[in-house]
Amino acid sequence: MMLCEKYKEQFLQPEVRCDTYIGIEMKQVWFAELQLLEKFIDVCNKHGLSYQLVGGSLLGAIRHNGFIPWDDDIDVGMLRPDYDRFVQLAENELEAPFFCKHL
Predict the structure, then answer these.
(1) Which segments in the chain show pLDDT lower than 50?
(2) SS3 category, 53
(3) Which long-range contacts (CB under 8 A, 24 or more apart) does 37-45 make?
(4) What is the Cα–Cα distance from 6 to 15, expressed in whole angstroms?
(5) Which end of the chain has less neighbouring CB within 10 Å, N or C?
(6) How far apart are CA 84 and CA 82, in angstroms?
(7) Helices 24-47 and 80-93 sit at what angle, rounded to 10 degrees?
(8) Alpha-carbon distance values, 98 to 37, 46, 62, 95 (Å)
């Protein structure tokens, strides 16, 4: 079981953060993103790939202890060699519903 599944029921409750109401729909989006991030981290750790939170995700982690209330994505950065390796590995490492679409 993925770690975020352990906290799903608790996480999916509406809340007010920074005077902003966060409803169940946004919490479901965030939860799906956390599942994806957790799988991404598992693959990176398994293969020794480096990554970092960047942009609004980094700001949210520091300033809001999580997502910025009005943000709806996760920003992750990788050095090109690690990114290229992740793209190569993704086909075999990711199973539905996860996939990697390389542009």
Answers:
(1) none
(2) strand
(3) 37/74, 37/76, 38/2, 38/3, 38/4, 39/2, 39/94, 39/98, 40/76, 43/86, 43/89, 43/90, 43/93, 43/94, 44/82, 44/86
(4) 19
(5) C
(6) 5
(7) 100
(8) 10, 17, 27, 5
**Comparing C-alpha atoms, which of 72, 73, 28, 74 is closest to residue 51?**
74
Which pLDDT score, from 0 to 100, does residue 75 have?
97
CA angle 34, 51, 43 (to 5 degrees): 65
Pairwise CA distance, residues 42 & 48, whole Å: 10
In 3D space, the residue among 19, 1, 10, 13 whose CA is nearest the CA of residue 70 turns out to be: 19
Tokens of 101: 């679409």
Per the confidence metrics, is the pTM higher than 0.85? yes
Q: What are phi and psi of 52, to 5 degrees?
A: -155, 150
